[in-house]
Amino acid sequence: MSLLVDPKTREELQAFGLKDADKCFSCSTCTVTCPLATPENPFPRKIVRYLQLGLQSKVLESPEPWLCYYCGDCSRQCPRGAEPGETMMAARRYLTALYDWTGFARKFYTSKRFELLAVGYVALLVGLIMLIFNTGRPDWQHADINSLWPARYVELADLALAAVLSFLLLSNAWRAYQAVLGDLRHQIPLSLYVSQLQELVVNFLTQKKFAACKDRTPWIIHLLIMTGYTTVFILVVVLLNGLTIESLKFQRGWPEYPLLHPIRLLGYYATVAILVGTTYALWGRWQKAKPAYQHSHPTDWMFLILLQLTTLTGIFVHFGRLLDWPATTYTLYVIHMMIAVPMLLLEVPFAKWAHLAYRPLVLYLMKVKESYQAQQRLVPQESGDNLGPDS
Q1: With a threshold of 0.90, does the pTM exceed it?
Q2: How far apart, in whole angstroms, are the C-alpha atoms of residue 357 and residue 100?
């Protein structure tokens, strides 16, 4: 099979955060160092080499960028300072852009100006919509968000936003599936996809392969952020049944659950987990304490800042309601929505949150592929066993 070499690939990757891949002379120190690399998937060296040669098609079909969790051991041990860990991170951003059929992710990753304008535009649009579409009958005696923005209308807006995000993310995930499995996807029976579904769920919920890295702290931080956000989703969509995401942050009047009620405890966990996780990650990037924090891309900062501000403003709205300050509560609520909606609309399908979907998906597809190939290897052997002595 012929390979198409694109000499502009390395130059293009620089906009996605590629640093010093040209320094690599394929000594394989990074691959030997990585606890997650295998003979079948010898990364980071393999991906670094693809990028050096400009083999975009090989990068697109490679699962290795998603097998890397960027613990930084490879960058620490690299004798040439080629930053293999950052190269893998840049490859993940690049793949996210290639999966995205809208082209928005590419602009989001390659232009800081576009990123800032996109977030600012969506924030202003949300604020304008909230100022225009309200009942016009605010309760100035008590802090009652429903007096301006009834919960039933906010829920409809939430459902519409969820539908848009689901369509964008799932359609991009479909393109990732096509890229990783290629033509082999037409040969794999449905039963194999079903039998390996647990791999998708387990990797999403536990990020278990990250725990194999020598420094387990990044795994814990990653898990806090992911489980905190996932807990919010489960409470809102599954358990609260009709209450909006603002209810979880005690904004619209939390049901009178006892202090130690499981729903309250889960809500507190989600808030604390997100705050602890984002604070650690932001401080680490500020201090450049680890290899993974030394070359942070603007989208890394934006993701963490938006997530933390969404949580903090949610807490402020909660206290404004508890203190019964109507004007303060309403103002803070608008600010909260102006931060939360851009984070969801831009980050979930196009940037950092999309990684949470692509990584377990690729790990799942690799398990399906391995199972299929194992079955194919057994077919000749089983056929031979049935042959007679005179065959």
Answers
A1: no
A2: 13
**Residue 6 CB partners (closer than 8 Å, separation 6+):** 54, 55, 56
Are both 75 and 194 inside the same structural domain?
Answer: no
Return d(Cα 333, Cα 272) in angstroms, integer. 20
Q: Which of 99, 129, 156 is a domain's end point? A: 99
For 299, residues 6+ apart whose C-beta sits below 8 A from its C-beta are: 93, 108, 109, 115, 351, 352
Same domain, 325 and 338: yes
List all residues 6 or more positions away from 100 whose beta carbon is below 8 Å from its beta carbon. Answer: 106, 172, 175, 349, 350
State the residue range of the domain holding 130: 104-373
Residue (of 246, 252, 215) closest to 232 by Cα position = 246
Confidence grade of residue 3 (pLDDT, cut at 50, 70, 90)? low
- Of 58, 82, 99, the position where a domain reaches its end is 99
Interhelix angle 298-322/352-385, rounded to 10 degrees, is 120
* DSSP letter, residue 239: I
Structural domain tally of the chain? 2
Residues 6+ positions from 322 with CB-CB distance below 8 Å:
250
What is d(CA 32, CA 78) in angstroms, rounded to the nearest whole number? 11
64 and 108 together in one domain: no
* The predicted structure's pLDDT at residue 190: 93
User: Are the CB atoms for 338 and 125 separated by under 8 Å?
Assistant: no
Residues 235 and 124 in one domain: yes
| Nearest alpha carbon to residue 93 among 279, 305, 275, 303 | 303
Q: Are 91 and 309 in contact (CB under 8 A)?
A: no
Examine the domain organization and report whether 268 and 321 are in the same domain: yes
Structure confidence by residue, pLDDT tens digits, 80-114: 888 899 999 999 999 999 999 999 999 999 999 99
Q: What are the φ/ψ torsions at residue 80 (nearest 5 degrees)?
A: -110, -5
What's the CA gap between 52 and 21, in Å, rounded? 7
Same domain flag for 222 and 303: yes
Please tell me whether residues 65 and 187 are part of one structural domain: no
In a domain, 4, yes or no: no
Instruction: Quote the tokens at residue 9.
Output: 């690939």
Q: Same domain for 223 and 147?
A: yes
